[in-house]
Amino acid sequence: PEATVLHLSAWSRAIHKTFGHKIYNLVARENGSIVGILPLIHVKTRLFGNQLISNAFAVYGGPVADSDAAHDALDQAAEDIGKKLNVGAIEYRNRSRLRPGWPAKTESYATFRRAMGDTSDAILKNIPRKQRAMVRKGIKAGLKAVVDQSRERHFAIYSESVRNLGTPVFPRSLFQNLLSCYGDRADILTIEHEGRAIASVLSFYFRNEVVPYYGGSIPAARAIAGNDYMYWALMEHAHARGFTHFDFGRSKFGTGPFSFKKNWGFEPSPLAYEFKLLRDQELPDVNPLNPKYQLMIKTWKKLPLPIANRVGPFVARGLG
Q: What ranges in 141-188 are assigned the alpha helix state H?
């Protein structure tokens, strides 16, 4: 029950195809039946270090198992692999604490999840008044949502968005591989205004949940509430597909995206990222708020988009 769409083998297969990082999808068995899983990805770069992560490039991960014995077996197998690879640390990106004895980061990120509503009217009504007004602004502006067969439109919007945030973009091949590996569990929804694509999001679908994961918009979308309209349209689209819950993903405490999701009526639930330190003496800190990355971020925001898109994937492969 604790497994997420990011525990599916499709995720690690797409990461391996894109970046070449070695994957270790561990399975615990009892009497021939699967009683636990632990997806691990080995990320080793000069810039960001050497780690074994569950799950790398993902917001969720960590072992999911039916018993303490299965959890312990997966932990031990992960530690054995980590020592063999000479990693600094093993990281579990859990929704909640699993290993109280391990050092953890519990005050960095929160996730936002809730039911959408049983009908289209209920979905709109469940959005707080101010954000509902923004959605209606987008409707009045004539915005249109389409399931997009063009990955290029999504990539153009997404790459510009992350450049503007000072973040290296992932390569086009990542999105192609994710869509290929996930099949009908993933799609792209693009928002158009007068025939022009202004916002786009790649989402995943698992059990009863839709998970918008890689989204962005161009600056022109702000004046016509493109982002608000996009997330409402995604709720409508997911509801039509039979999904009932919306996972707004993680955000760092005290940031703009964190406030945006709260304004949508979602309550934050702190995530627990746990670490087994092997060679490292302190917790890894690869995140955009780390002061040592601030100069890089400021510089990246000023790069021309073609250069950012060319250089970004070489940097992004180590972000994990």
A: 151-165, 172-182
Which residues lie below 8 Å from residue 102, measured CB to CB, with a gap of 6+?
92, 274, 275, 276
Least Cα distance to 211 among 174, 249, 176 occurs for 249
What are 214's strand-pairing partners? 202
Q: How far apart are the C-alpha atoms of 88 and 86, rounded to whole Å? A: 7
**3-state DSSP call for residue 203?**
strand
Cis peptide before 50 (omega within 30 of 0): no
Length of the chain, in residues = 320
pLDDT along the chain (320 residues), means of 10: 95 96 96 96 85 94 96 97 96 93 92 95 95 97 94 93 85 96 97 97 97 96 96 97 96 93 95 93 67 64 74 68
Tokens of 1: 């029950």
Are the CB atoms for 289 and 281 separated by under 8 Å?
no
Q: Residue 109 in contact with residue 91, Cβ under 8 Å?
A: no
Which of helix, strand or coil describes residue 244? coil
